[in-house]
Amino acid sequence: MLIFLAVVLLVYGTVNGYIFWRLLQAFSSQPWLKAIFLLSFLVSMLSFPLGRIINSHFQRHFSEKLVSFGAYHLALMIYLLLLLLARDLLRGMVRLGRISPEAVSWLSVKQPAGFIFITAVSLLIIFLGHLNAINPKLKTLDLCIPKEAPAVGELKAVLVSDIHLGVINRSERLSRLVEKINALKPDVVFLAGDIVDEAVSREEEEKMVGCLKAIKAPHGVYACPGNHEYYGGFARNISYLEKAGVQILLDRAVRVGDCLYVIGRKDWTAVRQGETRLSLKEIISRDKVNLSWPVVVLDHQPLYLEEAASAGVDLQLSGHTHAGQLFPLNLINRLVYEKNWGYLRKNQTHFYVSSGSGTWGPPVRTGSHSELVVINLSFGQK
Q1: Could you list the residue range(s) of the whole structural domain that residue 311 is in?
Q2: pTM score
Q3: What is the pLDDT of residue 236?
């Protein structure tokens, strides 16, 4: 953990140090502009780490606001870095053409207008990315499972993942999301992990619980934990969901009426913390899952998909990836996972990996969309 924290701080310091250096160069001849930009940048840069430190000890309204404000800096520094590096690359290409970069005014590192323009473009990207993040798109998936469900011929499920409730994604946003869920009139709701991120004030916790209680689904709400439920204090984070009447499945299978079985997996974070994660076949055997019925698996991280494909389950629902969330991280994200977002079929098993309904870190999406997923399940031969 200490090594990870050291690496994060090194990267954070290096990126911001480079931006800071370019800022000083740009305003070297404009003392008053330099003072304004310098102060603004320092406040923005320090808000997130200072807010986190204060909030971890006191959980005050001021520290929560500081974290929320500072979270945008995480996105801002990415796009300031990319645009400043792009300008430096162009400067290098101009030099190869034996032209002085200073002769092209907008390429000069000592031009305030160039830095102001890059900052304005970065802020515009973040603003548009924020609008994209807080307005989840509706994704509809029609799937046929060639098994008979004793009580129904079809079922409407809603998949929600990666809300990351906490200091940044608060009860107001959850309330709007629940309204959208209820407007879809689902039969059952599946929560595929990272619903709760971190501890908040008791008042805010009660609001979140109240919002989750308001979800209307005749066959219930079922959830598996994600990695962030473990990071933020597992017992307390899970208690939010339990108080709201959500069934938390930790390597456990339950029967949903006379419709189907749902299996919820422990997250791989539990294994790294020394817990045992049962295999799907072990859960199916222990909980006497009837594989002639439809079987849905909730597993937060879309890893080792071949396990579900060989276990006789029909549908696995995952999240975790955010489909990259921020450009250009979404390009790397695609290389890490067999399926980082969307639908996949392996053998007779359907998979869907959601990009998530919320965000982690900055409430900004530039590399993917937030989404709510409606899954229209039909049963029997078609």
Answers
A1: 136-379
A2: 0.91
A3: 83
